[in-house]
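Example 3.2
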Amino acid sequence: MFKVFFSVITFLMVTIGIVKSPVNTPKEREYIICHSTDQPDDMAVFASDPAFQALHLSPLKINYQAQGEMVKFSTPDGTDASGYLIKSKKKSDKWLFVYQEWWGLNDQIKKEADKFYNDLGGNVNVLALDMYDGRSTADPKEAGQIMQGVKQERLESIVKGGLGFAGNKAKIASVGWCFGGGWSLKSALLEGQQNIGCVMYYGMPVREVEKLKTLNSDVLGLFATEQYITKEIIEDFAAKMKEAGKKLDYKIFNGVHGFANPSNPKYDQALAAEAYGMALGYLKKKYNS
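Structure, written as tokens:
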């Protein structure tokens, strides 16, 4: 009788949230984390999860001589921000905003920015925004801490500062990976009528229909096979984009999170080449239309 009474009391306590259920599986916990809407950035919610950190192996060190230069620009919150800029060969209103992985604005991101610049014929201004205000790391735990510590208001202010730097006549597309994949989409939303395209590599998507309705362009999503930004999340994003009346083309590659980063020990050259070909083709159409 006592056992039955105790079981009933425990059930009621779990139901009203006094204690946590001891039977949650890891998969269930991940689902709850990934779908949380209480945080300003869904990816930041599970950045401290050791299993998520384990997906991000410390990047290999590269020695890269960048083509561009670091620049500073003012932001609406009254401070300065910085970014890595490669100017178009001729004066142009075409811009590509590049968004870093959770490691920060490191040499790998500068290398990717240069690659897009060269393959777009040098006719597009490319700006990789420094979303961490000078901080970067190769340690997964520290990367998670930095990402969780950055305020949403500051991140938005950096993007708006980049918009001011590009000018109100700029036609802007964006691309980013991981943390930056999500910010590529958020940037597109902040760009308003200046937005002409958005490429997001394995980033957490915005799934609020009313926000997605304000997109000025379609979106190309290049996702990975993983347990956090899951197939279910991606399909939900696709459904929300459709509900918002916006176009989403996407592919889920049979590769790990970060498969397109050459400094990732689990880099997949073949998949990276395929994904980059899709991204480059998409951007060329946007700038030539």
